Amino acid sequence: MIGVLTDTTASIPEKLARQLDIEIVPYYVHRGLETLRDMVDVKPREFARWLVQATRLPTTSNPSPGDYMIGLKRLTEQAKEIVALTMTSKGSGAYQSCLAAVDLFKIQCPEVRVEVVDTLQVAMSHGWAAIEAARAALAGLSLDGVVQRAREVAQKGMMLQTADTLRYLYMGGRIGRAKHLVASLLNIKPLIGMQDGVIVALGTARSRRKAYRRMVELMQQQAGENTRIKIAFMHVAALEHVEKLQPLVTARFECTETIVTELSPALAVHSGPGTVGVSFFPT
Fold first, then answer.
1. How far apart are CA 139 and CA 249, in angstroms?
2. Which of 283, 224, 222 has the alpha carbon at shortest distance from 257?
3. In this structure, what are the phi and psi dihedrals at residue 227, rounded to the nearest 5 degrees?
4. Helix (H, G, I), strand (E, B) or coil at 31
5. Which residues have a Cβ under 8 Å from the Cβ of 183 and sit 6 or more positions away?
6. 3-class SS at 214?
7. Could you give all domains of the chain from N- to C-terminal order, each with its CATH number?
8. pLDDT value of residue 185
9. What is the maximum span of the chain, computed from C-alpha positions, in angstroms?
10. Beta-bridge partners for 84
């Protein structure tokens, strides 16, 4: 059996991760003197409620090599080959931390083969790669086949996101080349995405409705209208807004699988309450 390991920023629904036997390693959220394990000690809804009132933005940190070691060893109880997937190495130290863990793990468990995949993605674009890797493993593909499937999905994936403000992303230092949008007026909704593993600006809109329409246009430019896609709708305490975006997408694409999920607190720190986004790939 081939095991699949990833981390909480993939924002995979917990029930689905359990069904697919995906081992999830937590990021950390540092809130004052508290160090909280993402999706373990702090959950999305309670964290979003707290974040609205926060006077100082929490910080986050990626799993340590020791954290990855724990996950890898847990998987060896049932797997002799493992694929580990991380979010973009250009936005986090998780990839390097995972590599360091694998180097040590190979010394302790030389009979177990481990491949590490830098998805160059974030949120459910990272999550889809892990989900499809796990499905490939369950379907009986070889380790190389599982890795190939993970890379293929990550490469095809696209993430689009809008929020009420870029304040959280800017304060957290994760805004990359979208810095020039920080001064946008409050009623302007920024659109951001990923390009070559880095968060980039994709424009602005003057209302949520217009932002959602622009997101669909960008999806069509990427994949083509009426394309078959698998899509995840992501949000931070904004399910009611997902319900407004979803019909605009389903009217233009054949959605063969749809997931609605909350971004993990480690990501919500940087995007803030009110965030709505999509991660999809053509099938």
1. 30
2. 283
3. -70, 145
4. strand
5. none
6. helix
7. 2-27+62-156 (3.40.50.10440), 158-282 (3.30.1180.10)
8. 44
9. 57
10. 5, 116
Mean pLDDT in consecutive groups of 10 residues from the start of the chain, 283 residues: 97 98 98 95 96 87 98 96 97 97 97 98 98 98 98 97 71 52 60 92 89 96 92 97 97 97 95 94 97
Q: What is the model's pLDDT at position 52?
A: 85
What's this model's pTM, rounded to 2 decimal places? Answer: 0.92
Reading the block at residue 43, the tokens are 């959950």
Q: What's the CA gap between 194 and 131, in Å, rounded?
A: 19
How is 147-182 classified by DSSP, letter by letter? Answer: HHHHHHHHHH-EEEEE-S-SHHHHHTT--GGGGGGT
Alpha-carbon distances of 29 from 1, 42, 62, 239, rounded to whole Å:
33, 8, 9, 23
CA distance 6 to 28: 14
Q: Which residues pair with 235 in a beta bridge?
A: 262, 276
Question: For residues 137 and 4, is the Cβ–Cβ distance under 8 A?
Answer: yes
Structure tokens at 40: 């373990």
